[in-house]
Amino acid sequence: MQLIEVSKEANLPTRFGVFKIRSFREKKKVGDEVYCLDHLVIKSEELPKNPLVRVHSECLTGDALQSLKCDCGSELEMALKKIAQEQGMVIYLRQEGRGIGLFNKVNAYALQDKGLDTIEANLELGFKEDERDYSVVKFIFDFYHLKQIRLLTNNPKKIEAFKQMVEIQREPIIIQCNQHNMRYLKVKKEKMGHLL
Ligand SMILES: [Zn+2]
Q1: pTM above 0.90, yes or no
Q2: What would the pLDDT profile of 15-31 be if each residue is shown by its tens digit?
Q3: How far, in Å, is the centroid of ligand 1 from the Cα of 85?
Q4: In whole angstroms, what is the distance from residue 183 CA to residue 187 CA?
């Protein structure tokens, strides 16, 4: 079951520039319960034929708290800067902690404090290494009539998932290493095949 409700469009002035935002409410039925995920599109006023697109999964600790454990905060900042300059959109998906939710992510961080890496911690908690689901992205691409995009990513799984939906050119993301995210980035590169 996929039911998606679309909000009105509004202005969002930021320190990078003025964007347009629109929310896409995805209703997911799991067992008897229906969950609402309010995703967000942050875009430049105009979209070129081949816009820059970043599909970003929510990371409260990285995006809002500037955590150094992962690269989400810097990736988001870089993406917003680039779409302000070159025109495009950030599709902000509300799937925290690679889809396991904030509560479970904190438990995974506690396991990482004991020495497990990001994948081992998720597996220990009974999740897959990556629980993200990108089905709403197809709806968003169609909503904006996107046929070809420049996808800002280092993740080959995202390229695989989205090339079924639109024509893709990859734009790499370059992120600074620090002593806290070194292991996280190493796991991304060595265990998840990221192009770093
Ligand atoms: Zn993160």
Answers
A1: no
A2: 999 999 999 999 887 77
A3: 24
A4: 6
Q: Does domain 47-95+132-190 correspond to CATH entry 3.40.50.10990?
A: yes
pLDDT by residue (tens digit) across 117-147?
888 998 999 888 777 778 899 999 999 999 9
Measure 34 CA to ligand 1 centroid, in angstroms: 26
Which residues neighbour ligand 1 (ion) by CB within 5 Å? Answer: 59, 62, 70, 72
Token pair listed for 150? 């420049």
CA 190/CA 5 separation, integer angstroms: 38
Q: Where are the domains of the chain?
A: 47-95+132-190
Catalytic residues: 130, 132
What are 93's strand-pairing partners? Answer: 57
**72, 41, 78, 42: which is closest to 58 by C-alpha?**
72
Q: What whole-number distance in Å separates Cα of residue 58 and Cα of residue 102?
A: 10
CB proximity list for 93: less than 8 A, separation 6 or greater: 37, 39, 55, 56, 57, 58, 132, 134, 136, 137
Residue 107 identity (one-letter amino acid): N
b/e burial code for range 129-154 (CB count within 10 A of at least 16 → b):
ebebebebbeebbeeeebeebbbbbb
